[in-house]
Amino acid sequence: MIPTGPAADGPLTDDGLVQLLTPAGERVEHPEYDAWAADLDADRLRAMYRDMVLTRRFDVEATALQRQGELALFAQSLGQEAAQVGSGHALRPQDHVFPSYREHGVAQARSLEMTQLLRLFRGVDHGGWDPAERNFHLFTLVIGSHTLHATGYAMGVQRDGLVGTGDAERDAAVVTYFGDGATAQGDVSEALVFASVNRAPVVLFCQNNQFAISEPTTRQATVPIAHRAPGFGVPAVRVDGNDVLATYAVTRQALERARSGGGPTFVEAFTYRMGAHTTSDDPTRYRTSAQEEHWRRRDPIERLRAHLDRTGELPEVFQAQLASEADAFGEHLRTTVRGMGRPSGPSMFEHVYATPHAVVDAERAWFEQYEQSFVDHEGHQTGGHR
Question: pTM here?
Answer without folding.
Answer: 0.92
